[in-house]
């Protein structure tokens, strides 16, 4: 999967994220998304296309909120990803899938 990423403003309410709240055409980064799972650990990694350098990562952990949330006003192309900088420190980025074929690979519980 090759998503594009942009920083987003804080939520305006407790409601889900909406694409209309951010500039979906102002992307700061694009690269490769990899999901790595081993045992009980699952990591979502955003890596540079050419270098493979780590841009950001998100963790899927039992008992914690899912790090990927679909935007409620999109056609399953736009998501919010909770990035973990350090333990307990989070940033939120909008993630858009460029290729429609990437959509078939995503499932939410």
Give a short summary of the structure.
The protein is mainly beta and 109 residues long. 0% of the residues lie in helices and 45% in strands.
| CATH classification, class level | Mainly Beta
Q: In the CATH hierarchy, what is the superfamily? A: Pleckstrin-homology domain (PH domain)/Phosphotyrosine-binding domain (PTB)
The domain tally reads: 1
CATH topology: PH-domain like
Tell me the strand order in the biggest sheet: 2-1-8-7-6
- Proportion of residues in helical segments: under 10%
Strand content: 35-45%
Could you spell the SSE succession in H and E letters? EEEEEEEE
Oligomer: single chain
- Molecular shape: globular
* Alpha-carbon Rg, integer: 13 Å
Average residue-wise pLDDT? 79
Report the span from N to C terminus. 19 Å
Question: How many distinct helices?
Answer: 0
Beta strands, count: 8
Q: Report the biggest beta sheet as strand number plus sense, adding barrel if it closes.
A: 5 strands, antiparallel
